[in-house]
Amino acid sequence: MTTTAEYPLRTGRLRRAGALVKVPRLVIAALLWLVLTEALPGLAAWVVLVVVLGGTVAAVVAEPMVVVRLLWWARRPSTPIGVPGDPQVRVLVTRRGLGGGIGQAGRRHLVVPAAWVNRADLPELLGAARRRQLVASGAFDVAYQWFTWPWQVLAAFGGGFARGVARLPLVGFAWRVRFVVAGIAVWQTLAAGQYPATVGILVVMGLTYLLPWTTAHEEHLIRQALAGAAPPVATSEVRRPEARRGQRASVRRRACARAPRDTSEPCGQ
User: Is residue 189 in a domain?
Assistant: First the structure.
């Protein structure tokens, strides 16, 4: 198992799984940025390009607080919050919905929902989130989140819309057999000589299978790593006071030896 001093729980398999998750999404985000900059007028396109590339480079180099706060709509808590045993982690507070958990912003930032600030079990939750951060977070996660935020917005919107539409019986069935529909479309485009359309259909269809699999694969490895690196649970062992060996028996024997023996009762009882 390959580990580093900075990420004692992040293995080589987790790094490769994380790269497999991020690379397709980076390509999609880059294409979206290209389409957006081409659609904007000259000055606006340059402003967008500078903001995107500047924020990405800053996040790669230093993981600044400004980028993290903008990404997560977060702020510093009025009362400082710390992770027990790890003072280097910075804890921020946000009113943004985090899916019922504590957000992990890169290597050194945790984002807590504002409704959780006064919870009694917040230190335990922060400790669990920090362990997951050590396992799952890479060196360039903030830069990845900054660069791919348009893809994340579209994915969240499209995912919610797809979940709502998939409840319809015919749409859900068509999605489950989409490889058949895609095969028919590929055959038709090949017969018509529309090879770019064929390539586009194959790429989109492959992504519908690849993206969910990469996410599930990484999550599976993260859970395995967390299960293997779970901190030992302190158990209190109840020990009974041990008397000296033979003490009670010797006392009883001495009592039987010294006391007048009653023939109606056995000695030692």
Answer: yes
